[in-house]
Amino acid sequence: MALSKPAKHLYQFGPFAVDVAERVLWREGRPVALPPKAFDLLLVLVENSGHLLEKDELMQRLWPDTFVEEANLPNTISLLRKALAGDGDHPYIETVPRRGYRFVAAVEEISGGPMEFVAGLNGTPGESVELSLTERARASPTIEEKVETTDAQEAAAVAPFPTPGQPKHHRLFGFGFGLALLAVGAGVGLFYGRKLWENPPPSFQQLTFRRGTVWSARFAPDGQTIIYGAAWDGHPTQPFLTRPESPESRSLGLIDGDILSISPSGEMAISLGRRFKRFWESSGKLARLSLAGGAPREVLDRVNDADWSPDGTSLAVVRRGKRRDRLEFPIGKVLYESQGFIIYPRVSRQGDAIAFLERWSGDESVGIVNLAGEKKTLASGQNNETGLAWSASGEEICFTVAKAGSTGLHAVTPSGNQRLVTLMAGEWKLHDIARDGRALLTRDHKRGEIIGLPPGETSERDLSWLDRSVAIDLSADGRKLLLSKVGAGGGGSEAVYIRQTDGSPAVRLGDGEAKALSPDGKWVIAIQGSAPERLVLLPTGAGEARPLKNGAITDYYEVEWLPDGKQIIFGAIEPGQPLRQYVQDTEGGSPRTTTFRGEIQWAVFLPDGKSYVARGAGRKYYAFHTEGGDPRPVAGLAETDYVIAGSADGRSLFSFQLEGVSGSALATALSRIYKFDLATGRKEVWREIAIPDPAGITIVGPEFPSLLLTPDGRSYVYNYLRVLSDLYLVDGLK
CB within 8 A of 399, min separation 6: which ones? Predict the structure, then answer.
C-alpha cells in the first residue's frame, strides 16, 4: 500500500513560501539554497512577523546551550537577506539598531495537499515539483556554513531550457548542455554537502559560571565526570566536580589544592599549596587523593606538574633542580633536563613517551622524550603556548597557541607533521582530551588593572589602559606613570606609554619594553629589538628617540636611572661573558662595566646618588656602589621583601612582601607596605592597600615592580592581573 504524503504547512510572503515540514524555502516553484541556521532564523522571523525580536532572544533560539560568537547572528541575517534578494532597506527584514530584527512583510499561513502550493507559485496549474536527493542536499546543506554557488550551478538554475523561437539544433544543444550543467552542479553540491556533513563545526558547552580563575581540568575515568581546580571569588584554589548535564559544581573539600592528573582507578595527583610565579611556572607539594574521599597522602615537595601513566602505577613529574627543570618518569628517574622550563608533561596513551612544552630564552616548543631519554623537538618558534594534551587516538599531540586576540588549536604527530585543528577568538587553554574526542578548554579573560592614588586626592583612581598594561615607574611627584603594554590591545607586541595620573588618556611613545622614567620625567629608557637588543631613550614630550651605544652587548636586564638623570645602570650580557653590571652616560658614552658580577633587582638609590640597595645573589639584599667595591649585606630585609622606594630623607626603605599569587593571600589585601629603617634594621607595617573585588586576582603585577611609591609616601600605584575563566566542554574537534 502506498504511503500518503502529509498535508503541507507553510508560510507565504511575496514570491516565497516556507515549507515547515520539509524545511525548504521556495521561490516561484524553485528551491532556494539555505544553510540550516539560516532556515531556522527565517522560520523564527516569519512566525513572529511584525514583532521585534531581540538579539539575545534570537541567539538563544538559534544556539541554545552552545557558545558562539555574537557575529554569527548578523552574518546569518546577511546570508538570509542575500537569499531573499536584497540588502540595506530590505523589504522583508528590518534592523532595529542596538535591539534586534523584525520581519516586516505580510505573511500568510496556509495548509494544503502534497505540493499543491507549488502550482500556485510558478503559475502552472496542477504541476508539481519534487526535490531529488541531490537537490535536497543543495537546497538544505546540513551544517552552518555558507557554500558558494558555482557558475555551473547558477547556469543550470537559470537557463536549463531554450526560449521560444530558438533554432531547433540550438534548442537541443541548449537543452543537453543545460542538463549537463545541472548534473555537474548537482554533483558539486552533493560533494561539498557531504564534505561539510563529515566536518561539522565543533560545539561548545559552558560548564562553569562563577567569577574567578580555572587553573586545571581533567576527565575522570568514566569520561563524564569532570574535576577542575579553580579559585572562585577570591578564595583559595580547590578542586571541584561537575558533569555536563548539570550547571552546578561540587567542592571536593580540599582547600588550597589543585588537580594535576587522574589515574584510571580514580586516584588524583594533586598539588597542595600550589603557587604560580608565572602562568607557566608553578610549584607545590605533590600528593595523592582518591576520588572516593579520604585524606591526601603527600609524595614530593617542589613539584611543578605531574601526570599519571596509563596503567595508573607511576607518575611523571617535573621539578626544579639547580636552575634547571627535570622531567622524571617514574619519580627518581630523570629522562630529560632543560635549561629553561618544562610545562604540561603528558604521558602518551601507550605509556612509551612523554610530551611537554618547553620554554627557553623566550622561545616555546613542543617536545617528546621516550623512556630511553631520547628527546625530540616537534614544533618550535611558537610563543604563548597555553596547554597540551594527547589526542583521542594517541597519534597526535594537541596544543593551544594564543596570539593577538585569537587562539589556534594545533596538532602534531611524533614524526613532526603539524596541522591547525581550529581557530578560536579570545585566549583559550587546552587541559584534557577524552578517548571519545571531547576536550576540556578554558577561555581566559585577562586584564592588567592599575589602581593609583594621585597626589592631592583622597580616593584611588583606575589608571588601567587597554587590556593588559603594566605599571613600570612613577615620577617623584606622582603625576606621571610609565606603562608597558602587552596583549591584544598592543597588537601582540610590547609598547611604551606615558599617562598622567589625573586620568587623562595615555600617550604612546613607541615600541619596546619600558624600563625606567628619568628623574626629571622627560625621558624613558626602553629595550627594543632582539639578537641583539638595544637601549633607546624615548622623549615623554616633543623630541626624537635617541638610541644608545650598546658595544658588544646582546641582552639587557634590569635598567635604572642614576639620581643625576645623566647616567643609567643595568645588567647585561656580552658574548662569552657572564651577566655583569654596567654604567652608561646617556649623552653618548659607551657602557662600562663595574666590578660586580651577577644580576641585581629592585635597586633603590640613596641620597649620595652613587650608593644603592638592591637584591643580589641568593635573593639577599646588599648595599652597592656604582664605582665598585664589595657589596655589604643589609640586615633585616628578607628574601621575600621587595624594595620599592627610598624615603626622601634617605633613612628608610619601603617594601612589600609577595605572599604568593593565589587568591587566598589577596582576598583581604593586595599587600602591606613596610617601612624599613636602614640604621636600626627595624621593619614595621606602614600602610595596607585593600582590593574591593578579589575575584580572579591571580598575579600581583604581570611584571615587577607591582607596587610603586613616591619618596614622600603620599602617592602610590599598584597593578595586578585579573583572570576570569570559563570552562567549556568542546565536542566535534577533528
Answer: 357, 366, 379, 385, 387, 388, 389, 409, 410, 411, 412, 430
Q: Which stretches within 90-222 are classed as H helix?
A: 116-122, 133-139, 151-158, 168-198
- The reported pTM is 0.68
- Distance (Å, whole) CA 449 – CA 691: 11
- Is residue 344 within 8 A of residue 302, CB to CB? The reply is no
- H or E element: which one contains 272? strand 267-278
Give the strand pairing for 707-709 and 580-585. Answer: unpaired
* C-alpha–C-alpha distance, residues 141 and 24, integer Å: 11
Question: Each residue of 261-290: pLDDT tens digit?
Answer: 999 999 999 999 888 777 767 889 999 999
- Between the alpha carbon of residue 719 and those of residues 243, 468, 471, the distances in Å are 36, 10, 6
Residue 362 has a pLDDT of 63
- How many CA atoms are closer than 13 Å to the CA of 431, on its beta-carbon side? 27
CB 452 within 8 A of CB 715: yes
Query: Nearest 5°: phi and psi at 452?
Result: -145, 155
**Is 199's pLDDT higher than 80?**
no
Using CA atoms, how far apart are residues 195 and 192, in angstroms rounded to an integer?
5
Please, are residues 400 and 385 in contact by the beta-carbon 8 Å criterion? yes
Burial class (CB in 10 A: 0-12, 13-18, 19+), 293: exposed
Please report, for residues 140, 276, 365, 558, the alpha-carbon distance to residue 280 in angstroms, rounded to integers and kept in the order given.
46, 8, 13, 22
Instruction: Please name the residue that has the C-alpha cell 595586578.
Output: 720
Grid coordinates belonging to 448: 592588567
Neighbours of 284 (CB within 10 A): 24
Cell digits of residue 510: 613607541
Question: How much of the chain is in helix, strand and coil states, percent to nearest 5?
Answer: 15, 45, 40
